[in-house]
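User: Could you check the structure of this?
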Amino acid sequence: MSHWRSMIKALVALAAAAGLATNALAADSICYVYVSPIGDAGWTYQHDLGRKQMEKTLAGKVTTKAVESVAEGADAERVIREFAQSGCKVIFATSFGYMNYMEKVSKQFPKVTFMHATGYKTGPNFGIYNARFYEGRYLNGVIAGKMTKSNILGYVAAFPIPEVLQGINAFARGARSVNPKAEVRVIWVNSWFDPGKERDAASTLISQGADIVTHHTDSTAVVQTAEEKGKYAFGYHSDMSKYGPKAHLTATTHIWGDFYAKTVNDAIGGTWKTTNVWGGMKDGMIKLAPLNPVIPADVRAIIAKQEAEIVAGKLHPFAGPVVDQDGKTRVAAGKDMTDEELGKMDYYVEGVASKLPKK
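Assistant: Sure, the predicted structure tokens are below.
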């Protein structure tokens, strides 16, 4: 009897293993390319949270793979191509500099769905997605304009591309909407993730009189520097308050999970079509982190009101007149800047004291 019991147990184990193998084969592989380390805060961290939420939402349907710290160059093309060759159903690449490599590889693998964050090129199996970061930036600017004592605000920026310029300009417009004396000074570090350069830039801005700083880079260095020097800061991408409990006023956070779940579900279900998604506060893709209690009650009330107006479409951070720092009107009074105009932004608005790097 023991012999037969052993055989039966073995057969049951084999059947279970076969079932697991079948399920594993049935699950679609979803792949991610990250420009910086995942860490526990920042741009890549937020995308990875979205990946995990998607994986949980579609439990049993998908498996995921991710490669972090992939440079925006030839190595990105290698990673993207290897993902496609390995059977990835959907590939998400999460940095602007991956765009041309994604486009090239997408043409070679027409059955794979390619999704690129922050770019502007599309194709039959190549879509793009982004979040309206500038909405949160505008509200950060309002807080900064109300709370600054020096009227000098510092901004550490990565590269002078439209996405980054939108944030700088929205921050400046928010600040100037409540404080016409406020000015924004910008230092470019020419890197998405370089904590050393980010720290040095923040220190320099503070030495120039900035009493509130923020950044469009991936690390927490700017918030940490503000905390060390007794200044205020806004986090970016994710809530960075644990790195500067006193300094951190709030943050413009990016929420990707629902978008990833819908995109992947459509792709594996065969209903996905080329997309150009640009979601904001009303879509739940941009949210402010909890406000620091140090922010005055009247400022909190303004932010709550304006956030509701952005969601309702009643407040546009780039409502005309939009005037650049040279005095040229870019958007006339009574009009809102179009998405096409936002996507081509290559100038500073009034209130930004620095000059753009020459091309």
